[in-house]
Amino acid sequence: MEAVTLTALSSQETLRDPASFYARLREHEPLSSFTFGPMKRWIIATTYDETAELLKDPRLVKDARNVFTEGMPQSVQQFALDYGEMVQLAVNNMLMSDPPNHTRLRGLVSKAFTPRMIEQLHPRIQQITDELLDVVQERGHMDLVTDFAYPLPMTVICEMLGIPISERADFRTWTRELLNSAYTPEQAAQVKAVGDTMLAYLRKLLAIKREHPGTDLTSSLLQVEEQGDKLSEYEL
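Below the sequence we write its predicted structure tokens.
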């Protein structure tokens, strides 16, 4: 397994044409690694077969707390200090959890995020899609990501969470900045600052939904309970 450098991952050439970069990895090194942050070694799987094999491997875990059974190394502790509450969000996230906690979270979330709710979203998603396509049709050209692939799910997510229209531009900006790679100390500091701002906003949103619940997913998640168990603030 060959190493991939952070320079290659974050280069302007890769950002301009990521498909070609990952195509080369799939052809020559479908399983590669790179060093970043306290975990030291990260693995990139670029083919279906490699990914499927890894996901079935019981040694592969998502929650970092299940890796360090004898306490967190100093480097990981420093990483947690640098990123503050963003780390708490990561380790309490259902996507980064292992059974049995993942099973517990999935059971609670499924009580609010139901098949019926998803089915009810279809007409509105179609309406948003039509509106976005009408705009680019009148213009005569489009950037697939900027004009469609990004605003469509972002608008749907904001509506599902009950975020007011007047606050969605800020939410989109925070999300975009959090998804940007933080390779330098300066970038990491910016990610933490944006994360803190977004967390403060989400706490405010949760407080509003507790006082004035609506039909949105946030209100439903606040109300779900199973045998006295509820989602914590970080899990929400």
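Strands lie at 31-34, 42-45.
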